[in-house]
Write a structure and sequence with these properties.
Blueprint (H helix, E strand, L loop, with lengths): L1 H5 L1 H7 L3 H11 L29 H11 L12 H11 L14 H8 L3
Length: 116
């Protein structure tokens, strides 16, 4: 949208008004966008160790939400639509369930924590 806001030829080419691009650009002004993602660590209490179930803690979710403008919610291991969606996505995701030392990966630990 930045290109639309600042380049009239491009705005005309893609069929979007420049005013719309400028509105989007203004809305993004105050947001923080992290390159490469948000840095979360077990040591700072922002995510759980693999042996404790992996996943983010409340502190980690708050940090991630503040940095990206997201609205991550706590796990839903009791059941419901979010659990079904999470289990379906993660179970079908490629990747090993154990690392080279035979320990469960973060993927395996999170699936166990969500009771998938």
């Amino acid at each position: 949208m930045e290109a639309v806001a600042n380049n009239p030829k491009f705005a005309k080419k893609v069929g979007i008004k420049q005013s719309v691009g400028k509105d989007f650009e203004a809305a993004d002004k105050g947001k923080k966008f992290a390159k490469g993602g948000v840095s979360l660590a077990v040591g700072r209490g922002e995510k759980l160790a693999t042996d404790k179930g992996a996943g983010l803690t409340a502190k980690g979710r708050a940090k991630y939400n503040a940095a990206t403008g997201s609205h991550l919610k706590a796990p839903q291991p009791e059941g419901g639509p979010r659990k079904k969606s999470f289990c379906a996505r993660m179970s079908g995701m490629p990747g090993p369930m154990k690392d080279e030392d035979g320990k469960p990966t973060r993927k395996a630990a999170s699936l166990k924590r969500w009771k998938c």
